């Protein structure tokens, strides 16, 4: 076996030790973390045995397309670590271009894409662990870009992750001590016109006919939904959040005697939690309009229809189908 290709069971620390020895004499080093795009999907569709053969093929493929002296380590089920020494920083781009040329290929009847995150010694760091982590930040961004993307580390990636962790902490705090504030955006109508999200207007005798619930977090700053809702939607806290939203909205609807529009997450709608909360809090005189997007129906049609049937059976809300996300 090629001594430069470590087996999967070899721990990352051993690979990083080898890198630490090499950078003692290296002028410039390219640290690459590479993984197989949608490997989980490949295993499910084509079988784990075929997936295993694919990984073995990629190992051979990397050996064939890189130099003998380049370090190649398999550090997970579908992730590889590569360290390549070059003489000048300018050489980095020619190496990455070469990698780009083989970052997509055909294995039997499977189209394979390799996604890569890259950090550069000594410009992004001098410690192997630091370079490893920064290549990981770049890989995370590469996965968001395209199946065979190669992304160089940028400090803004790290800042974005730290901000995400901060927002997650704030969400937990907001749930625990009820920092969520719900604002109700008036929706006005007249005989001929209906104005949505009209911030400033002047017209005689226009009166609110409904309102849309807007969520904010009032912590050290006021956080808008665009800053936290994408994290909340995949977090268990979404259940408590939406129950609080529905409880508050039904109360406002009854007091103001107008319909309240609420946006619910794809997760809670498909699971039917929206129906449970409405049955729990809806009262005579309450009018709740639920806004959903097309992907909720498309993603899991049968379960979505089941939720719709339950909603319509209880006759508790109006379903508003919007193309907005």
Automatic annotation (TrEMBL):
Domain of life according to the entry: Bacteria
The EAL domain, residue ranges: 176-325
Alphabetical list of Pfam families matching this protein: EAL (PF00563), GGDEF (PF00990)
Domain GGDEF: 27-155
Record-linked Gene3D superfamilies: 3.30.70.270, EAL domain
InterPro entries from the UniProt entry: Cyclic-di-GMP_PDE-like, EAL_dom, EAL_sf, GGDEF_dom, Nucleotide_cyclase, Rev_trsase/Diguanyl_cyclase
One of the record's GO molecular function terms: cyclic-guanylate-specific phosphodiesterase activity
SMART domains: GGDEF
Descriptive protein name: Diguanylate cyclase/phosphodiesterase
Source organism of this protein record: Thermodesulfobacterium geofontis (strain OPF15)
Upper taxonomic lineage: Bacteria, Pseudomonadati, Thermodesulfobacteriota, Thermodesulfobacteria, Thermodesulfobacteriales
């Amino acid at each position: 076996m090629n001594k430069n290709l470590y087996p999967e069971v070899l721990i990352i620390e051993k690979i990083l030790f080898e890198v630490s020895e090499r950078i003692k004499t290296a002028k410039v080093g390219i640290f690459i973390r590479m993984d197989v795009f949608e490997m989980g999907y490949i295993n499910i569709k084509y079988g784990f045995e075929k997936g295993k053969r694919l990984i073995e093929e990629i190992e051979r493929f990397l050996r064939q397309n890189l130099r003998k002296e380049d370090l190649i380590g398999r550090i997970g089920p579908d992730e590889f670590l590569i360290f390549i020494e070059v003489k000048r920083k300018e050489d980095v781009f020619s190496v990455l271009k070469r990698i780009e040329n083989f970052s997509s290929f055909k294995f039997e009847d499977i189209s394979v894409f390799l996604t890569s995150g890259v950090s550069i010694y000594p410009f992004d760091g001098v410690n192997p662990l630091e370079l490893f982590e920064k290549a990981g930040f770049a890989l995370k961004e590469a996965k968001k870009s395209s199946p065979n993307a190669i992304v160089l580390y940028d400090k803004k990636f790290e800042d974005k992750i730290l901000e995400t962790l901060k927002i997650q902490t704030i969400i937990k705090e907001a749930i625990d001590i009820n920092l969520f504030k719900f604002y109700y955006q008036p929706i006005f109508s007249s005989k001929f016109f209906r104005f949505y999200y009209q911030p400033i207007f002047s017209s005689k005798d226009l009166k609110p006919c409904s309102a849309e619930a807007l969520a904010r977090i009032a912590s050290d700053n006021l956080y808008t939904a665009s800053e936290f809702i994408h994290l909340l939607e995949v977090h268990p806290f979404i259940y408590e959040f939406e129950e609080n939203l529905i409880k508050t909205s039904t109360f406002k609807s009854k007091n103001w005697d107008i319909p309240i529009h609420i946006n619910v997450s794809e997760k809670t709608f498909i699971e039917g939690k929206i129906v449970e909360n409405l049955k729990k809090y809806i009262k005579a005189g309450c009018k709740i309009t639920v806004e959903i997007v097309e992907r909720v129906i498309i993603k899991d049609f049968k379960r979505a229809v089941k939720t719709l049937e339950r909603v319509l059976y209880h006759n508790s809300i109006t379903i508003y189908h919007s193309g907005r996300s």
